[in-house]
């Protein structure tokens, strides 16, 4: 109750929405913020959706490189549909990032992997905005990693978490009458990540081919703890070693 009214500890004086915002992991926090900001700028007519979508010609011929990022940040104008997608984005992105540990290195590498694959596949399916399939990728990975979790859809259908992507696909198909390409792309890319990070390692001696490389981890974590500790121990050992007196000349 103290947290809800902003009292107690470091959250004193904060509103519930502010507390909720700062409790989000860093990648999820800024992705959610950028998504809402992008829709706000379009709503205020400061920019247009035509400046945000991904196009190979616009990016690599006209050098509009910002589209490589904005295509993942625009979900549409302010509406119930936008709130629905932001809810799924924030919820499952947060759950995955929290499960990745305190460092954002692993989760940011997952985002980079998914974004690169989506940009490669985008021209094949004529999908200029890629925020929905990126969100679907995270939903799929979370659902496969939590097979025992029970979910309820609209309070009518109760099912296990691994069925969540299929339920969302069926709902989208019923609502729009077309096969949801964004859900399909998210499932394919998410399954590749899930297989090589959760299924493949136990079968191949712990090998994890999709883990972030060391140079990427250093960006977020600095020098590995083992290297730092070894260096400090060596310095202490050298400093504490007794001095050896030179032999006496007679």
UniProtKB/TrEMBL annotation:
One of its GO terms (cellular component) is endoplasmic reticulum membrane. Keywords: Endoplasmic reticulum, Membrane, Transmembrane, Transmembrane helix. The chain crosses the membrane at residues 65-89, 110-131, 151-175. InterPro entries: DER1 (IPR007599), Rhomboid-like_sf (IPR035952). It is a multi-pass membrane protein. May be involved in the degradation of misfolded endoplasmic reticulum (ER) luminal proteins. This is Derlin. It comes from Neurospora crassa (strain ATCC 24698 / 74-OR23-1A / CBS 708.71 / DSM 1257 / FGSC 987).
